[in-house]
Amino acid sequence: MPLTRYLLLLAMLQLVACGSDEPVSHDYQIVVSGSATPEPVEFAGSYACEQNGQEHISDVSGSGTLSASFGCDSLLYVRIQRVLGKGLVSLTVYKDGIAVFTTVPTDSVAPIVYVPKS
């Protein structure tokens, strides 16, 4: 009998959560990996996310490897571009701990852009 009550409670909680109009916050992580030899790769870029209906834009620039973690309702885009160095650069985007976008390392100076599907 206790297991039946527990399962009923879980079902009720799921129904309440599904009916909510509140945006669901997610945990995101952006990892930019740049090679360090023969000289560190430098990159510049940004990402935009939406939190409580407001858009926030943050810088993602550096050299070598950089990781940025943040919470928001939705990720709007990530844009990274190699600006200096002769090595490789790659981008991985995680949503709630799951990789949703990964590039192969590239030596191109063309921007790497991730825009989530709506």
Which shape, going by the Cα principal axes? elongated
- What would the average pLDDT be, to the nearest integer? 84
Number of separate domains? 1
CATH topology: Immunoglobulin-like
Instruction: Provide the succession of SSEs.
Output: HEEEEEEEEE
By DSSP (H or I, 4+ residues per run), the number of helices equals 1
Distance separating the two termini? 43 Å
Looking at the overall shape, the CATH architecture is Sandwich
Question: What's the main sheet like?
Answer: 5 strands, antiparallel
Query: What is the CATH C-level name?
Result: Mainly Beta
Rg is 19 Å
SS class = mainly beta
Query: pLDDT under 50 segments (min length 5)?
Result: 7-19
What does this structure look like?
With 118 residues, the chain is mostly beta strands. It has one helix at residues 2-18; strands at residues 26-34, 42-51, 54-59, 62-63, 65-72, 74-84, 89-95, 98-102, 112-114. Strand 2 and strand 3 (54-59) form a beta hairpin. It is elongated.
List keywords for this structure.
118 residues, mainly beta, Immunoglobulin-like, 5-stranded antiparallel beta sheet, 4-stranded antiparallel beta sheet, 52% strand, elongated
What are the SSEs and their pairings?
Layout: H1 2-18, E1 26-34, E2 42-51, E3 54-59, E4 62-63, E5 65-72, E6 74-84, E7 89-95, E8 98-102, E9 112-114
Antiparallel strand pairs: 1-5, 1-7, 2-3, 2-4, 2-6, 6-9, 7-8
Quick recap:
By secondary structure, the chain is mainly β.
